[in-house]
């Protein structure tokens, strides 16, 4: 059992902490596998740049080989994640106990001094963002059968988080880069529970979410209402991306073609959905199934959260166990309708936050990624993350 030097974290720094108090402090979180910083340093060759496999809003990710030869993805959380040791370990314990075929497995963590590092199962085939939706060369051939498995797998993983884990977990950041593929192309949802590791005033959480606006449910973006329905919206966006093989936002396209959801809705109304199925499938797909998946994407992204189906129903609709009532599909909620979004965070200077988020949004507005944003219509809104509540709908 690893020990915890008294220099760890805020609570542990207390000069009056006795061994008994320390034991009590870590009671209940002792089952979390702990790695020493030294061990992870060795595993990644001193966090060598050649072992770096990515970087996201939480920090850098390295590929590493652990003591017994097990390969792992090692996520070094950024300095902003300075949560106290106990709070951190409590969240880690929750995450590491969650196991499902379609969720990335967390092996354990390292909490030493200011280091906060997560150790995950390494997935061989990268993320959907880099493969199916990436611009580079990808050797994977995403046949319809593979896409079907990926969509149903993600839906099952999310249904598990929403409906079977107690208390339920709202992922908050379902998107293509958080869907990793193993060697058999089984999809695994990554980063669930991570938002809870962040102290409430961690500014990059807002920036990170703002970086993936295309997946954000309008009620979450505008009013900070975070419920499972916000995840279901993001899932709907992802579903239409997988079937169409396109990113939700593409500022390189002419006006009117930039926002995938808008197009899907238009084509649905014209009864021409089949036109939006990925042409790289070269017609080798089940037309009824592919169009049904697109309609389910529309059901999940409806503007009114209450109308979006629960994930367990989505799984049944995808697999054909449950029919979809087309009469009930209403227009999607489109963030692209908003002309001005202001990030408000009561912990920060509002002006500063707004500026930096706009910089984030527009600096990449020429690319095909998801951090682009429309300034077309007239509505004005406030994007607030301080009022985020986890409520059940
Ligand atoms: N378990 C893993 N196995 C293999 N590669 C991984 C794993 N976890 C992360 N990666 C790689 O590291 C990259 C960065 O992941 P990370 O989660 O830090 O950022 P992100 O998903 O792009 O954004 P965000 O921080 O918003 O989740 C991923 O795109 C993926 O390529
Ligand atoms: Mg991620």
TrEMBL record:
InterPro entries: CR_Ser/Thr_kinase, Kinase-like_dom_sf, Prot_kinase_dom, Protein_kinase_ATP_BS, Ser/Thr_kinase_AS. GO terms for molecular function: ATP binding; protein serine/threonine kinase activity. Keywords: ATP-binding, Kinase, Nucleotide-binding, Serine/threonine-protein kinase, Transferase. ATP binds at residue 75. It comes from the Eukaryota. Residues 47-324 form the Protein kinase domain. Belongs to the protein kinase superfamily. PANTHER family: CYSTEINE-RICH RECEPTOR-LIKE PROTEIN KINASE 3. This is Protein kinase domain-containing protein. It comes from Chenopodium quinoa.
């Amino acid at each position: 059992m690893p020990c915890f030097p008294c220099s760890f974290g805020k609570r542990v720094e207390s000069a009056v902490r006795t061994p008994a108090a320390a034991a009590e402090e870590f009671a209940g979180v002792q089952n979390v596998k702990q790695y020493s910083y030294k061990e992870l340093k060795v595993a990644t060759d001193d966090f060598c740049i050649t072992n770096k496999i990515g970087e996201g809003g939480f920090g850098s990710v390295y590929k590493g080989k652990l003591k017994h030869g097990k390969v792992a993805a090692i996520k070094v959380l950024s300095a902003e994640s300075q949560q106290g040791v106990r709070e951190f370990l409590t969240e880690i314990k929750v995450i590491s106990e969650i196991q499902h075929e379609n969720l990335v497995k967390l092996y354990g963590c390292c909490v030493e001094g200011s280091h906060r590092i997560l150790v995950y199962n390494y997935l061989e085939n990268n993320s959907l963002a880099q493969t199916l939706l990436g611009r580079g060369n990808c050797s994977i051939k995403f046949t319809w059968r593979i896409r079907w498995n990926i969509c149903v797998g993600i839906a099952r993983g999310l249904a598990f988080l929403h409906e079977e884990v107690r208390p339920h977990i709202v992922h908050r950041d379902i998107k293509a880069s958080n869907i990793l593929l193993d060697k058999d192309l089984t999809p695994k949802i990554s980063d669930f529970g991570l938002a809870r590791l962040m102290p409430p005033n961690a500014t990059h959480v807002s920036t990170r979410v703002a970086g993936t606006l295309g997946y954000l449910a309008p009620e979450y973006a505008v009013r900070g209402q975070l419920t499972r329905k916000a995840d279901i919206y993001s899932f709907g966006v992802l579903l239409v991306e997988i079937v169409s093989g396109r990113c939700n936002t593409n500022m390189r396209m002419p006006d009117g073609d930039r926002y995938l959801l808008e197009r899907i809705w238009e084509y649905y109304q014209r009864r021409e959905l089949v036109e939006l199925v990925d042409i790289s499938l070269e017609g080798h797909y089940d037309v009824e199934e592919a169009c049904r998946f697109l309609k389910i994407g529309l059901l999940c992204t409806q503007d009114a959260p209450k109308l979006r189906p629960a994930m367990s129903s989505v799984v049944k609709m995808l697999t054909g166990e449950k029919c979809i009532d087309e009469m009930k599909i209403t227009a999607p909620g489109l963030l692209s309708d908003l002309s001005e979004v202001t990030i408000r965070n009561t912990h920060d200077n509002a002006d500063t936050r707004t500026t930096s988020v706009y910089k984030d949004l527009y600096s990449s507005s020429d690319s095909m990624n998801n951090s682009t944003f429309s300034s077309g219509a007239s509505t004005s809104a406030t994007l607030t993350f301080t009022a985020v509540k986890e409520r059940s709908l």
